[in-house]
Write a structure and sequence with these properties.
Elements: H1 2-20, H2 49-52, H3 55-59, E1 61-71, E2 100-108, E3 111-120, H4 125-128, E4 150-160, E5 168-175, E6 180-181, E7 186-189, E8 194-201, E9 206-215, E10 220-229, E11 237-248, H5 250-264, H6 289-292, H7 313-357, H8 369-379, E12 386-387, H9 389-397, H10 406-416, E13 424-425, H11 426-435, H12 437-456, H13 461-476, H14 493-513
Antiparallel strand pairs: 1-2, 1-11, 2-3, 3-4, 4-5, 5-6, 5-7, 7-8, 8-9, 9-10, 10-11, 12-13
Helix pairs in contact: 1-7, 7-10, 7-12
Length: 514
């Protein structure tokens, strides 16, 4: 019984922990979901950049940038002044003055678009009269040094991040910045007024860092920008720029660009069509939808996936205990059922054995006290007035009904030995035989049926008449014997009472017939 309980509890635990591996989080019986405290795991949390951080609502729009005090703190070189350019070496210099840039900052849901136009006034006469180093240029495009200015586009494109913290991660830069992937570049809103920009171009090691803060009722941003190249000794700063950004309307922005083109004398073929910007300046360098979806949380899979929940200790203990209680109850019920079956079968077999052994008076279906006493003495081989376990076993094993199983016999003897002293006395024997009444009668009836068959096979009419007479006598006589119910085991009392009641009814019926 103990091993069965262990097996059932083991099966219950295995099923619980097997289920636990795929349990949903956030249930009464499981662990809390990470999404409850960490928005990165919350699939319902927005990927919209402006909804994640309200700073970007104010930042989005059209900006005119002016550059001041641009110089190398080590060499003192002013980067607003022209320098020779090498087409094969990016970021080596621009043969024009740096004065203004025009930014169109647009945010659509989870995607960021920054399209920029840089317009350079012509270089001065002093620069244009310098000897040009081999491999370098003092002009870009179709103009002349000192006469015409120049313009170029630049683009930066990115998305919101899986961190869902309002950060914009860059996917690509184009134009002036080179067609580069920028997985290590991003812009982060520090608070409602300040943002931080960091860009790293792995191919060249160029690093650009900018910090800007809103001024004048969110219409201007003042910031500083520093640039350096990784890998150079002591990572020297190439330049430091002070930038003032002023927010304008689209119409003002386009008008300012046209005015700057005229002021810088930029040839029409070297001008950027800022009014025709549709998402991205640089054609083939722009991101495809497939490339967007390598990082855009709206169309890619986040690394922050909610793990399966785990079962809480309390519910596990409760479920296990409930399972054990149910298992024990089922086992107890099963064994009680088996014991009742054993007792019933043992009683049935014993009654049949007694029916084989006892001889009734003609016409009788009942055991008289004399017959019971005779049967008791027959079983009590040592004649000590009680029936031992071995004596009863020898009796039930000696019949022609086949062997009674030992469990059935043990159940039989346990019921007969009402006081539990290890032996069965005559009173206990009689009490048990009263419980066997129905089984005994059934056995005797079967024997009577065999006698009927044998009689009708007899050759003479006299033998048939004799048997019929005996049958009539058997049904006309009654031998009643009541047994005190307090001797009978508790679970058989009801049957004993019913049999005693039947005997009372039969006795009264016989009296009325007499």
């Amino acid at each position: 019984m103990g091993s069965m309980i262990k097996r059932l509890v083991g099966i219950l635990l295995v099923s619980l922990f097997a289920r636990a591996s795929g349990t949903d989080c956030g249930k009464w019986f499981s662990s809390d979901c990470l999404a409850d405290s960490d928005k990165r795991y919350d699939k319902g949390y927005t990927n919209d950049i402006k909804e994640q951080q309200s700073f970007w609502k104010q930042y989005e729009g059209y900006w005119i940038n002016e550059f001041f005090q641009v110089n190398n703190p080590i060499t003192g070189k002013d980067f607003t002044q022209p320098s020779f350019s090498n087409p094969k070496m990016p970021y080596t210099g621009i043969p024009y003055k740096l004065r203004r840039a025009f930014y169109n900052e647009s945010i659509v849901g989870s995607r960021y678009y920054s399209n920029r136009v840089y317009i350079y006034p012509p270089a001065d006469e002093i620069f244009c009269n310098q000897t040009i180093p081999e491999g370098f240029l003092n002009v870009i495009g179709n103009g002349q040094c000192g006469v015409n200015g120049y313009s170029e586009d630049a683009g930066v494109y990115g998305t919101s991040s899986y961190e869902k913290d309002g950060r914009i991660q860059f996917l690509r830069s184009t134009g002036k910045y080179g067609a580069n992937a920028n997985p290590n570049s991003n812009m982060t809103a520090v608070d409602e007024l300040t943002y931080f920009f960091a860009s790293t171009i792995e191919a060249t090691g160029f690093v650009n860092v900018f910090t800007g803060t809103f001024l004048n009722n969110l219409t201007q941003i003042s910031g500083t920008q520093s640039s350096f190249v990784q890998g150079l000794p002591n990572n020297p700063i190439l330049n430091t720029q002070v930038i003032l950004m002023t927010k304008v309307t689209k119409e003002e922005w386009l008008a300012a660009i046209e005015q700057e083109y005229e002021s810088a004398n930029v040839l029409p073929e070297d001008r950027i069509d800022a009014a025709g910007i549709q998402g991205c300046f640089s054609g083939d360098a722009c991101l495809t939808e497939e490339e967007w979806c390598t990082a855009d949380p709206e169309c890619s899979s986040s690394p922050y996936q909610e793990p399966d929940g785990t079962l809480k200790a309390g519910p596990i203990v409760g479920i296990v205990l409930a399972g054990v209680v149910v298992a024990v109850a089922l086992i107890v019920a099963y064994f009680e059922h088996k014991i009742r079956q054993l007792r019933k079968q043992a009683r049935h077999d014993f009654a049949r054995r007694v029916a084989q052994s006892v001889t009734l008076t003609p016409g009788s279906r009942q055991l008289s006290p004399e017959a019971l006493a005779a049967e008791f003495k027959k079983i009590d081989q040592d004649k000590n007035g009680t029936i031992s376990n071995e004596e009863l076993w020898e009796f039930v094993s000696s019949g022609k009904l086949g062997e009674m199983t030992r469990p059935e016999f043990d159940a039989l003897y346990a019921v007969m030995d009402a006081d539990g002293n290890g032996t069965v006395d005559f009173l206990e024997f009689c009490a048990y035989m009263s419980l066997c009444k129905a089984d005994f009668n059934e056995a005797k009836d079967r024997m009577s049926i065999r006698q009927v068959r044998a009689s009708f096979l007899a050759p003479t009419e006299a033998s048939r008449s004799s048997f019929a007479e005996q049958t009539a006598q058997r049904y006309s006589s009654r031998v009643s014997m009541k047994v005190p119910s307090n001797i009978v085991e508790e679970d058989d009392k009801e049957e004993a009472d019913e049999q005693n009641e039947d005997q009372d009814i039969e006795g009264k019926g016989s009296a009325r017939q007499e």
